[in-house]
Specification:
The chain contains ten helices and nine strands. The protein is an alpha/beta fold. It has two domains: about 170 residues, Rossmann fold, CATH 3.40.50.620; about 90 residues, Pantoate--beta-alanine Ligase, Chain: A,domain 2, CATH 3.30.1300. Strands 1-4-3-2-5-6 form a six-stranded parallel sheet, sandwiched between helices. The chain has a three-stranded antiparallel sheet with strand order 7-8-9. Helix 6 crosses helix 7. The chain starts with a strand and ends with a strand.
Length: about 280
């Protein structure tokens, strides 16, 4: 497995692979990799001849009071995981390599879509996501790119960007990976102390409750999300950002739970913001 820090290195290697007729998968990450990221790498290795993992903590998707400076980092561990799962190339650029001193061009979806859910409290977040992912697509030129369904709004927005910008890239969504007790895997879980870690299980319990209500035939988004909120609010360390049902493609609010609807949440446990969701399957 190779590690590249320069854009030209990536382009040269991918060009060689493409000349050999090989397919290329891209797994974009911000580092501090866990089993959730690992599932994306495994899927890319399974479906593509070559796999590139980008490890880049992207500053443009963090707001002024967010956790960019404290976001966990461990590139040596990241490399080991990538190698163990069969990745062929890790792209680990500096901020200067990715953006330069005078970068002032952004990619942004100008609609209500990125203003929903996480976008209400993180107004510049998805502009930063679209910009860095667009840059990675231009640099790596992958055939497929792999993203986790835990970040469901991000996944929907990237799919929209790919359609709108005519990228010839297949976007592959991969299921949420959970701890044994149900907590969705996240790099931010490391922020939680022992008491907060126990409290965080209210998210997965709320997902389980909501899913069970839907399976029993409940179609009212208001009823399901209200019960989920009631469960979360019983946890003293929890503070709800949102619990909402939206169309799984447009991210716009819905009243009726039917196939394709996303029920998503963001909840603060202490100072740590965690997200979780489920989709209505039938």
């Amino acid at each position: 497995m190779k590690v590249a820090v320069k854009i030209d290195e990536i382009r040269q290697q991918v060009r060689e692979w493409k000349q050999q007729g090989l397919t290329v998968g891209l797994v974009p990450t911000m580092g501090y990799l866990h089993e959730g990221h690992g599932s994306l790498i495994k899927k890319s290795v399974e479906l593509c001849d070559k796999t590139v993992v980008s490890v880049f903590l992207n500053p443009t998707q963090f707001g002024p009071n967010e956790d960019l400076d404290s976001y966990p980092r461990d590139f040596e561990s990241d490399k080991e995981l990538c190698q163990s799962l069969g990745a062929d190339l890790v792209f680990h650029p500096s901020v200067e390599e990715m953006y330069g001193e005078d970068a002032s061009t952004y990619v942004e979806i100008v609609s209500e879509m990125p203003k929903q859910l996480c976008g209400k409290t993180r107004p510049i977040h998805f502009r930063g996501v679209c910009t860095v992912v667009s840059k990675l697509f231009n640099i790596v030129n992958p055939d497929k790119a792999f993203f986790g369904e835990k970040d469901a709004q991000q996944l929907a927005i990237i799919r929209k960007m790919v359609r709108d910008m005519s990228y010839g890239i297949e976007i592959v969504g991969c299921p949420i990976v959970r701890e044994a007790d149900g907590l969705a895997k996240s790099s931010r879980n490391t922020y939680l102390n022992e008491e907060e870690r126990k409290a965080s299980l209210c998210l997965s319990r709320a997902v389980k409750l909501g899913r069970e209500m839907v399976e029993k035939g409940e179609e009212s988004a208001e009823k399901v999300t209200s019960e989920m909120k009631n469960l979360i609010n019983k946890e003293p360390l929890a503070r709800i950002d949102y619990v909402q049902a939206v169309d799984g493609v447009t991210m716009l609010p819905v009243d009726t739970l039917k196939k394709g609807v996303l029920v998503a949440m963001a909840v603060y446990i202490g100072n740590t913001r965690l997200i979780d969701n489920f989709s209505v399957k039938e």
